[in-house]
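General statements about sequence and structure are easier to judge against a single worked case. Part of our work consisted of pairing the sequence of a single chain with a tokenised description of its backbone. The amino acid sequence and the backbone structure tokens for this protein are reproduced below.

***
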Amino acid sequence: MGKYNELISDESLWLSATPTEAALSLPFHVTEAGHFLAQNGYTVKRDRHESFLMLYTLRGTGTIRSGETEFELAGQNACVIDCHIPHEYFCHDDWEFFWLHFDGASASAILDMLSPNGPHSVDMSRADGFSDIMPQIFSLIPNGDIESCLKLSGKVHSMLCILTSAAIKTERGNAKSGVKRDIDSVIEYIAENYKDQISVDDMIERIHISKYYFIRIFRRMMGVTPYSYLTNYRINRSKELLRSTSMSITDISEECGFLDPGNFIAQFKKRTGMRPLQYRRDFS
């Protein structure tokens, strides 16, 4: 269910696409897109829509509501909202913006990286190439052939990567002074001590932020929790030993900081899809 008051000028562009089976198999596909010149009173309100939505303001300001979150989307700012939950966007004055409904196997994952704490406005004024991608997407939508579907998926991916990178850079800039240095210090500590039984408390002994804030900002900057980063580091070191030595699984397990061979095998299979000996055979 939805309510629409589509007050847009005649110069507005509105494109629709019905994804083919080939398009649906790709990481991203587009269902609708447009370049709207909206007028006072323009409103879109939905309980649910089967897609994700990117909005990018060129001129004026729009108001975005997604679930319990509300924010303004001013010029050269962008956002992505999950349309599977109640949402609304509208303007009180003229609002010129690009918009794109998309979905795909990678959509939810990249949205989690972009907005782990909910949708928000991201300043794109210093993001090279971002505003140029949308016209390229518009030109590909009407074609519908395999090559265009592949290019379209790639363009959406590029757009979302630029947007996510800008969001993370902004958060880094807003973080407490020295946080990047603290994260680098912990990464260095892990590289030097991964063979030992170290905990998150051990990691933060040398830095000066709270444990909760450290875990949150580490995950935001590195894409994983500190403990997962440590485990992945150990797995990567074990791969080197499996490929380049004849050490036993027990010895490699101990060398890389795992509690016992069984835990090592389980963690290795969980992260690589194969057992250590299979990995050794495949890469020997």
User: Anything to note?
Assistant: The longest helix spans residues 146-174. The chain has a mean pLDDT of 90. The chain is about 45% helix and 20% strand. The first strand starts at residue 2 and ends at 5.
